[in-house]
Amino acid sequence: MAIENGLTLMDFNAPWCAPCRTQEPILEEISAQFEGKALVAAMNVDENQNVAASLGIQGIPTLIIFKSNKEIQRFVGVQSHGDLSDALNKLME
Q1: Could you tell me the pTM of the whole model?
Q2: Does 20 participate in catalysis according to the annotation?
Q3: Rounded to whole angstroms, how far apart are CA atoms 73 and 56?
Q4: CA nearest 74: which of 9, 2, 4, 3?
């Protein structure tokens, strides 16, 4: 995973998950807003079961903010643009 350096918002999801599909356009907006400042990435939990298990992910979508490879904040369920933007902005201060 590309979370070793800097700030990363990782979306753990699956293609069959309706709430995950609802989250996608919000994450696209966040990615554009934080381009060059934070990486926004997604991981399919069906294809990466070992990673999901090692992080204790039990429900999707789960969004985790990593800073320098350390988990800083975790969200479960669909999150608003404002909540995600606020969380990333606070970590960049």
Answers
A1: 0.93
A2: yes
A3: 14
A4: 9
What is the residue range of 35's domain? 24-92
Choosing from 3, 10, 20, 26, which is the catalytic residue?
20
Instruction: Identify whether 36 is part of a domain.
Output: yes
Catalytic residue among 14, 17, 42, 78: 17
pLDDT in tens, 57-70: 999 999 999 998 89
Identify the CATH number of the domain in which residue 86 sits. 3.40.30.10
Q: Which residues pair with 64 in a beta bridge?
A: 10, 74
pLDDT at residue number 5: 75
17 falls within a domain: no
Is 10 part of any domain?
Answer: no
Judge whether 17 counts as a catalytic residue: yes
For residue 48, is it within any domain?
Answer: yes
